[in-house]
Amino acid sequence: MNDRTETLEFQAEARQLLQLMVHSIYSNKDVFLRELISNASDALDKLRLAALRDKDLAVDTDDLHITIEVDRDARTLTVRDNGIGMTRDEVVSVIGTIAKSGTAELLRQLREAQDAGASQELIGQFGVGFYAAFMVADSVELTTRRAGESGGTRWESSGEGTYTIAALDDAPQGTAVTLHLKPADAEDNLHDYTAEWTIREIVKRYSDFIAHPIRMDVERPGTDGAEATTETVTLNSMKALWARPRGEVEPAEYHEFYKHIGHDWADPLETIHMRGEGTFEYEALLFIPSHAPIDLFSPQGRRGVQLYVKRVFIMDDCDALMPNYLRFVKGVVDAHDLSLNISREILQQDRQIRAVRRRLVKKVLATVKDLKTEHPERYRTFWTEFGAAVKEGLIDDTDNRDTLLEVLSAASTHDPAELTDLAGYVSRMKDGQSDIYYATGENRATIENSPHMEAFRAKGYEVLLLTDPVDEVWVERVGSYDGRTLRSIAKGEVDLDTEEERTEAEAERERQRTEYADLLTWMGGVLADSVREVRLSSRLTTSPACVVGDAHDLTPTLEKMYRAMGQELPKVKRILEINPGHPLVTGLRKAYEQDGANDSLAETAELLYGTALLAEGGDLADPSRFARILADRLARTL
Q1: How many whole angstroms separate alpha carbon 110 and alpha carbon 123?
Q2: pLDDT value at position 116?
Q3: Are 284 and 333 in contact (CB under 8 A)?
Q4: Complete DSSP assignment for 67-87
Q5: pLDDT tens per residue across span 181-226
Q6: Of 247, 211, 248, nearest to 334 (Cα)?
Q7: Integer Cα distance of 395 and 473 in angstroms
Q8: Cα dihedral sign for 391, 393, 398, 404?
Q9: What is the pLDDT of residues 420-438, one digit of tens each?
Q10: Average pLDDT for residues 247-263, to the nearest whole number?
Q11: Could you tell me which residues belong to the region A (predicted)?
């Protein structure tokens, strides 16, 4: 230890993660080598890109490679690359903290994992990479020098909460990670990672597609008394998987490639291998995952498509290649004719990239359509995991809106267990029905128990049950399907009677309008601060009242969403509909006719409105006042 060496503490969450890794049991510890090799490969890609962009960077990129070095006597394993390397500040930032890795959620899921396999799989999912080394090592040493700099940095830690970092006058360019391995332990699934065939098997399984050679010195026994010799062998094939014809690639190879780029543990739901030829050539290997990532709806969530140009890595998370609503798609696009110096800003304006994006989107959506038709169970998995994200495309992707409407599914009152598509709904519409009815809410139970459903249930009309927040927006934006209007059952007036029924009931309705005219006017005044109008309802059969909006009103949920985004909106007053056939409403009318307006009757009107709000899952403006009035009324009944 000297004045150039410091001892620092890990960030708190990084320390917790290290403890979980070191002291938990994992079913497959081999993942550590996959992660270290992936990090090394990334460093080589970054060096090549830096050399192309900065002609003054004096580096040799002719032999970029990864080396695995083993010392069986010292029980160390080193993964070395001659890539971009890191500065001291980068070492502290990247290794000392994992603040950008979704740490809190990772820690929660690690703690909640019910078995060892699940815990290990989460590590792969989150791609924490370097930290996986502590699963198999008592201590880890990292030596690195940034390309173009003269001095290097050495980092060491035993994973117990602190690490030392020191400046080096002499260090090779790139990064070397040396693991002081724990003893092999078969019961703990801790293999001998100094054994040649163990390393070969792991590299072949996880890293055969890495574009750079992975080399290792192996000892060959001499024959006929000759001394043993050492031979440098390349462990991986280095074939770009997306460049090989699909018929030459085994499904297992696709799956392992996906797990590498997607930092996932499960096989993909679907693989899409395509090639574009003509004026702009490219190859694409895309994957639809089998489960949604935890950051699917996070603004900081990662995109999944990497961009290469002639096998040279350009960028991760290339948002110019895939729209936001397909952000869960993982994969690689290798363009042949782009500049290596292309930036994100240029990509957004590049005509060829826009053309590729259109083709990729159409191919992904066509694949989903095929799943829906040919593989219903896999489609159901897809829609359960990603449907809420896909529906975002209905809002702004007008070019593909028709296709999106074809692949859309929703719960409905037709079947409590199965989803339906819009075409299926239309095929079951009743004679004379012109609209597609839907209801939005937090969950199916809330919607089905809503007073708004009563008339539709009584008349046997099917209603789509939409429970995702985005549903509030897309149904308004789309407006119709197959010439039929998408109509909310909680907006406007509802009249489901046939012409004959309407004629027969007209006299009764006219009588009710006359009987209730004074009550409706009075209630409208009492509730003027809360509602725009009080009127008789034709949609209620058993509930006393419900709250509805005009045809073009914002729904309460949509209003909350806009306010949550900081958009101030004028208060939207809705309409209170009362059921003239309900005892509470008829009793209220008689009391008003006999005694006229009084405070007690006004409180009854407030309670009626409050219960209507609660029945649809709404929020009371003054819950304490509602509770007090209700308690007083209950006390009088005892």
Answers
A1: 8
A2: 44
A3: yes
A4: EEEEETTTTEEEEEE-SS---
A5: 999 988 877 899 999 999 999 988 878 878 899 999 998 887 777 8
A6: 211
A7: 7
A8: negative
A9: 999 999 999 998 899 999 9
A10: 88
A11: 1-344
pLDDT at 120: 43
Secondary structure of residue 608 in the 3-state scheme = helix
Give the 3-state secondary structure of residue 502: helix
Cβ atoms of 29 and 135 closer than 8 Å? yes
pLDDT in tens, 109-152: 555 654 444 444 444 333 356 878 888 999 999 999 999 998 99
**Alpha helix segments (H runs only) across 565-622:** 583-595, 599-615
Quickly count: other Cβ atoms within 10 Å of residue 12's Cβ.
11
By the 10 Å C-beta count (0-12 exposed, 13-18 middle, 19+ buried), 325 is classed as buried
Contact between residue 478 and residue 486 where contact means Cβ atoms under 8 Å apart: yes
With CA atoms as reference, report the closest residue to 436 among 470, 399, 484: 484
Binding site, annotated residues for ATP: 35, 39, 81, 86, 100-102, 125-130, 175, 344
Residue 133, Cβ neighbours under 10 Å: how many? Answer: 24
User: pLDDT: is 274 or 159 the higher one?
Assistant: 274
pLDDT of residue 256: 87
CA distances from 67 to 134, 152, 182 (A): 20, 19, 21
Question: Which amino acid type is present at position 187?
Answer: E
- The fraction of the chain above a pLDDT of 70, given in percent, is 90
Q: In whole angstroms, what is the distance from residue 321 CA to residue 284 CA?
A: 11
Residues 561-574: what's their mean pLDDT?
A: 77
Compute, in degrees rounded to 10, the torsion defined by CA atoms 401, 406, 410, 412. Answer: 120
List, in sequence order, every beta strand (DSSP E) within 323-395: 330-335
Distance CA 524, CA 605 (A): 10
Q: Which amino acid is at 487?
A: R
Question: Do 354 and 318 touch, CB atoms closer than 8 A?
Answer: no
Asked if 36 contacts 177 with a C-beta cutoff of 8 angstroms, the reply is: yes
CB 440 within 8 A of CB 467: yes
| Token duo for residue 515 | 């009987």
Strand-pairing partners, residue 216, are 68, 233
Closest CA to 144 of 180, 96, 90: 90
- Report CA 254 to chain centroid distance, whole Å: 22
Give the residue from 200, 63, 92 showing the smallest Cα distance to 154.
92
3-state per-residue secondary structure call for 233-299: EECCCCCCHHHCCHHHCCHHHHHHHHHHHHCCCCCCCEEEEEEECCCCCEEEEEEECCCCCCCCCCC
Per DSSP bridges, beta strands 330-335 and 545-548 are unpaired
- Name the binding residues: 35, 39, 81, 86, 100-102, 125-130, 175, 344
Note whether 299 and 327 are within 8 A (CB).
no
β-strands 464-466, 435-440: how paired? parallel
Q: How many other β-carbons are positioned within 10 Å of the β-carbon of residue 514?
A: 9
Spatial distance between the Cα atoms of 536 and 558, rounded to a whole number of angstroms: 26
Q: Which strands make up the sheet holding 174-181, listed edge to edge?
A: 5-9, 162-168, 152-157, 137-145, 174-181, 76-81, 66-71, 214-220, 229-234
pLDDT of 343 reads 66
